[in-house]
Amino acid sequence: MAIKVAFIGSGGIAGYHLGHLEKIKEAQMVGFCDVDRARAAARAKHYKAKAYTDHRKMLDATKPDAVYVCTPPFAHGQFELDAVARGCHLFVEKPIALTLDLAHQIRDAIAKAGVVSCVGYQDRYQDIIARLKAMLRKHPVATAMGYWMGGMPGVAWWRVKAQSGGQHTEQTTHIFDMMRHLFGEVRSLFAVGSRGLMTDVPNYDVEDASAVTLTFKTGLIGTVYSACCLKGGGKCGIDIYCTDGAFTYVERQSLTFREPSRSEEFRNVADYGQAIDEAFIADVAAKGKTRKVLSPYADACKSLALSLAADRSMASGQAVEL
User: Which of 143, 215, 246, 314 lies in the 20 to 30 Å Cα band around 258?
Assistant: First the structure.
């Protein structure tokens, strides 16, 4: 059975998903919407679909089964609500929103409509993460440190916190989400940030670097470090220290376990991007009767809550309860 798919937002991240959907025989692209008509038209021509600049017209004309929302962070909201109101299953790229109120409104609309949802936390679909979760059941965790340390993305909206949500919400959200996936929910956090190093970048108002200490409901403590001011080097992943050894997870690459007498490395071989799109389309085809999606919208709201709480803590200088 064909699954009719439409895209709201036809840029680079849409292309990432399209490369996967091309390999899924059930997926049939029927419409592309973008503020840049030429961009939507180029995608539509390639897939013999229709191009639009008005998402409502596209939804009503093409009647898709599933909609991918691949827009910048500040644009989320009405696209999702209009798609869900028409009974469309929903894939949303992260960050899902810039406020929890909006994210919860969309979450509730998804629940009311009974549609399948998925959010682009593709790191959960790596084979090394399934292995890590299994191994952690045998090794008591003492503490964990996560990292998203690198340079500043080149798109203009990223450096404006009101448009991107800042580094916590737009980038480090992958690390916050993985910490939740591995260790459970967070009870409270405390965050500090620094600025002043990126004086040569116009319209820049996000933090250069930050540290967020998390206290999980299990009692585990961890810290997540971020930086977007680095012109060389960097680090993305999580270091996990156990009572009898240590894990090093390098995001989207490898997992290493070290103990006093030996070490063992596992390379990620799964195409995690393909895996997340296949999971979404499979659940859509089964009308939600299967549970292959590991990152539904309601769960993604909890990862967004962490990044927004970190921003509140930086602003107030106080710990935040979740």
Answer: 215
Task: Judge whether 300 lies within some domain.
Answer: no
Distances (CA, A) of 204 to 42, 178, 194, 200, 268: 32, 28, 13, 9, 35
Integer Cα distance of 179 and 212 in angstroms: 12
Q: What is the pLDDT of residue 63?
A: 98
Instruction: State how many domains the chain has.
Output: 2
| pLDDT the model gives residue 233 | 87
pTM for this structure?
A: 0.97
* Among 173, 125, 137, 135, CA closest to 256: 135
Residue 32 sits in the same domain as residue 98: yes
Q: Which domain holds residue 15?
A: 3-122+272-294
What the block records as the tokens of 41 is 């038209």
Residue 302's contacts (CB-CB under 8 Å, 6 or more residues apart) are 180, 185
- Is there a single domain that holds both residue 77 and residue 224? no
Integer Cα distance of 126 and 130 in angstroms: 7
User: Is the same domain home to 47 and 193?
Assistant: no
224 and 145 housed in the same domain? yes
